[in-house]
């Protein structure tokens, strides 16, 4: 018999989104009026996280929901609820994408506050969606998604990370990982990547993180 699917990566990546979106809501709101340099630093990470969240949802929409709708018909309403929640978040993420350039350009308190309100809303709605997904849909994924389908979903997520951002995403992924998550994740990395991370890579990430956090 095939081994039961262990979609450990879902809860892992969800925790990253929860943490980083809550942090970004605070960082945007806490930026000083007129500080363009600070706005650019925070906005860069905001774009990385919101782009990643969008790609994560597109991957679910295209690779997970269709087979679940075919194989778990009695729970189709749950999958459709996920689709509606994705649509709501997509609209909010579009608002973030529209408001961010204005804040980067002016760093004004008014532009900052408009963006901070939307990012806080994204954080709250994302938290609700992820909790709903983990409680009600993750069991369906374990039961109805094959290992091959899950691997395709994971590989799509990996491919969506820009090469120049690989170190950042490695660092934020490992930051609060459980022992199980850390072992699963690092076990799939090439030895030379792990060697780089344990030396120069971790130092570079720590420097970047300190800059992002600023006075926070």
What does this molecule look like?
The chain has helices at 8-30, 36-71, 76-106, 109-144, 147-159, 166-175, 179-186, 191-213. With 216 residues, it is an all-alpha fold. The chain has one domain (8-161): Four Helix Bundle (Hemerythrin (Met), subunit A) (Up-down Bundle), CATH 1.20.120.520. α2 (36-71) packs antiparallel against α5 (147-159) and α3 (76-106) runs antiparallel to α4 (109-144). The model has no long low-confidence stretch (mean pLDDT 94).
Quick overview:
With 216 residues, the protein is mostly helical.
How would you describe the shape?
globular
Mean pLDDT: 94
The strand count comes to 0
Order of helices and strands: HHHHHHHH
Q: Number of folding domains?
A: 1
Provide the low-confidence segments as ranges. Answer: none
CATH architecture: Up-down Bundle
Oligomer: single chain
Q: What is the highest CATH level, the class?
A: Mainly Alpha
Give the fraction of residues assigned to helices: over 70%
> Which sheet architecture does the biggest sheet show?
none
